[in-house]
Amino acid sequence: MGDPAIAVLVGLGFGVMLVRRRSVATLLVAVQAMLLGVAALSLAGDRPAGFLVAAVILLTRALALPALLAFTRRRTPEPYLVTPATTVLVRLLVAAVVVLVAVASIPPLGLGDVAAEQGAVALLSLGIAIVVMRRPAILQVLGIVVAENGIYLLAISVPGGLPFVIELGALFDLVLVVTVAAAFTRKIHAEVGTGDTDLLRGLRD
Amino acid sequence: MTDAAPALIVAMLAVPLATALLVTLVPSPRAADRLNLTTSVLTAALALVLAVTALAGAPGVAAEGSWYVLDAASGVFLALISVVGLASAAVSPLYLRHAGRGWFTARRSHTWYYAGFNLFWAVLLALPLADNLALAWLLVEATTAASALLVAFSGKRSALEAGWKYVVLTTLGLAVALLGILVLYVAAGSAGSGLGRLDWHALAQQGERLPGQATLVAFVLILVGLASKIGWAPVHNWLPDAHSEAPPPVSAMLSAALLPTVLLIAWRTELALEPALGLGTVQELFIGFGLASLLVAIPFLWRPLPWKRLLAYSSLEHMGVLALGIGFATPLAIAGVVVHLAGHGLAKALGFYTAIPLLRQDPSTAERAPRDIARSSAPTAAAMSVSLVSLAGLPPSPLFVSEVMILLGGMDAGLIAVSSIAAVLLALGFLGLAHALLEGLLGTVRGQRPRRSHSARAIGALAVAVALALIALTVTAYALPGSDVVTALTGSGA
Predict the structure, then answer these.
(1) Domain limits for position B23
(2) ∠A46-B178-B272 over CA atoms, to 5°?
(3) Residue B64 three-state SS
(4) Tens digit of pLDDT for each residue in B239-259?
(5) Closest by Cβ to A154, choosing from B167, B182, B240
(6) Do B186 and B289 belong together in one domain?
(7) Domain-terminating residue out of B260, B277, B294
(8) Are residues B335 and B467 in the same domain?
(9) What stretches in chain B show pLDDT beneath 70?
(10) What are the chain B neighbours of A137 within 8 Å (beta carbons)?
(11) Environment class of B27 (CB within 10 Å of its CB; exposed 0-12, middle 13-18, buried 19+)
């Protein structure tokens, strides 16, 4: 992937950190996955098996998972937008610092594509930051997906590509985890009356 | 028997997977109990046959195939997972009898519990057999999905919190580990193509041909990622919550089987990359996680915590001890690790099973430390005693022997300061658990008289069996140093 495209991917990740509406965040992650999927398809090019695997991954990441999260969002209506723990400016600042520190501290990973390496590390750290700083359960699930999109960016940048077993296995695991997390989101909403995970803070020593 | 290994492996994994499907068809909770118990005996028997085959083949490899390896390490872990799994299956009806409505309706709760339990058990049994780092990662990730709903099975708000933390934190940790695996895959480019590049023996054979910096980065990312699932400090936040909120038989599976089995993957990675990185670097990382886990866990063992939460922090302590043993890497320390794995598994599983009658007799012990159990229920008190005496490392507990072996192994490796610090921390941990046991048995309590629990007698009988097994393990421990099993685990591919 080219540098501008990687910059767009990271920008979409920042968007998930900043927006308040779960629907908008889901859309941003879907666009991110779509961009990655299209890049994977173009890289697979003349390898029919690789093209098929890339197509399955694209459909799952860019359509099926966002559709599952959109369905979960519809089943867990929020009367009001969950108040963020911090302001947009603070979230932007913290995310920027986290990403810059992570990118600066990770040495070259050996792929020979510095932009892809830095983009992957940026998305992974951004995903972790989203989980830590965003309160709605669905936004935390989207943080996981952003982190996994970072790994996928690295995977499609590996010279010669990854074995299909790893690509499809990782996709299967992601689908399982997001499905379980979606089930939790609905149950938490049913129990607490909102998807605000900040209300789940009873376990302390 | 070695020739039959592939068929046995398929059967061992197929039985719990089939049970997970079949249990959804049975008409009543009692039929689900019976089906699960029957198939669990079969699963455990198959796993134990494979374990014996693997251990008999040590120090060599008993069998290997396209995706699996049946070696000494897989033998030790198959034995552990099968025993803990069978015991958890046997006590599950005691828990479910009074579980009532939770995440699922009371009528369907047995069905979904056993479906999840068997899926989780099948993935756990496959994990020590995995002959490939990427495959092992896929299975570790799958354990999260398979066990998360079990953690939140009660449907209580606290259980949802614990399950949510478990899913989110371990998934993020494993994403970091996957990043490391991709880096290692690229670094091992000359080791052939495809998935086989990440086979344990292919990585080890690469040795110094692996690029040092990229391999080190990969190893650190993999270890840090797996640490979040093993529950090593400082990435252990989910562990006390998940272990204390899950149903007791599931807590036993998490603590006695899941954590050590994920630790095996870290151990196999360490052995595979040690030729490239040198012993020093990998030793330091394991020892660092070990000491950090002990330092974080010990203060909590001194606090009057609810029973299952106390056991959860004890898990943190014991995963730290295992990390130290692997980090010391001397034959004596590795012998100690094997004894510790088995002893911790038995004692910790019994401890969690004890929570079934304990919580039935006095539900308030879910929120506070138990008191006066010796007066209210002798069988429950006996089970508590066997568990905590063993976990504390009081002789003749095998954990006393294993901890001495590990500490002496550390001194043997020239790491006298680390061993001394660990000895002091273990002594403090012993005192904390001993205090908790005395308070739990004899401490006075005000308020209503506890209810009777019919499950107490069953857990008391189980305590007798576990006590005998622990004593047998102590005796066996003296024969372990220098054995073929330890030879295999120290050098030729744990």
Answers:
(1) 1-129
(2) 105
(3) strand
(4) 999 999 999 999 999 999 999
(5) B182
(6) no
(7) B277
(8) yes
(9) 1, 106, 190-193, 446-452, 491-494
(10) 164
(11) exposed
